[in-house]
Amino acid sequence: MTKKGKYSNVHYQNYLGLDALLGTQVLRSVQLGKPAHEEMLFIITHQVYELWFKQIIHELKSVIEMFAEEKLDERNIGNVIARLNRVEKVLQLLIDQIGVMETMTPLDFLDFREYLFPASGFQSVQFRMIESLLGLAEDQRMTYHNQKYSSVFPEDQQKELADIYANGPLFEWVNKWLERTPFLKTPGFDFIQKYKEAVQRMLEKETLAIRASDYLTTEDKEKREARLGSTDSYFKAILSEENHNQLIKEGKKRLSYKATVAALFINLYRDEPILHLPFQLLTNLVDIDDLMTSWRYRHAQMVMRMLGNKIGTGGSSGHQYLNKTAERHKIFADFHTISTLLIPRSQLPELPTALKQQLSYHFTQTQHHDL
Question: Taking Cα atoms as reference points, which of 47, 32, 50, 40 lies closest to residue 114?
Fold first, then answer.
């Protein structure tokens, strides 16, 4: 029997606020005396987007709060991964939902499109919040009519967006978390030095294999060695802290040198038990970036299908603008380029026994590793 008072019965309709929620689909075409059947789909689809945006924001804020405590270890890193996994699932839903929208034909859309001016998806403050919470750099954003992206929002929402950057988006907290990785320098083992030596051995081995090949022509050998030289140069550029910091100044890198080395270490030694979850977390961030890019491209394709080269209702170049954001609005690109630095497991520097024990949970019950 349900207890009365504080835990009295609640009705499904009231708990979900369905009277208010289901009363918000107000069709402008009906208000203007020219009902367009497809406008209902258009409104509901975008309202569902905004509801899912709210859930993503809820998850990202909670993840950032955990990072902000500056103590993200094996005791609670699983919660971060679970919530980022949920964000991934929601983003996939958003991509799939475009297929529902595309059941409306371009001609159907034109029945009510003229009633939407100047409303635009640019005015979704929640989507901008998601970009900001993840850590999209403000100087990398595409401008809106040559003005700051937040200019379309009222002052209170502009402040909310600014506060996200002031308090630190997820990218910055992940950078700090990686910089605290404790395994990079231990007595008798300097990871970056050992890694440099392993890279050099790998490149020398590949060079000898090219030169010894019986089926490559001299010209082919020269071309392959030249390409290998480019790879060597890239390794040297990244492995030099000075060069890495110069790339940051030029806007070509965002992740700090120390954080990049930590991410590399986690990727290379991810088979060690204590690195399983950190590796999964980095994978989540790459997946989220990929899904955001996929959503932008899919959105751009839908706009091309519906509007061709028409100007967007908000005054943008429509498809062209959306396509460019997919190319430029990447957040965790630095983690993608880690793949360039990977070497085969067989050539990894051997870890000292003491370090392998640390990475295999050989510690007391009161001892935990911050990562």
Answer: 32
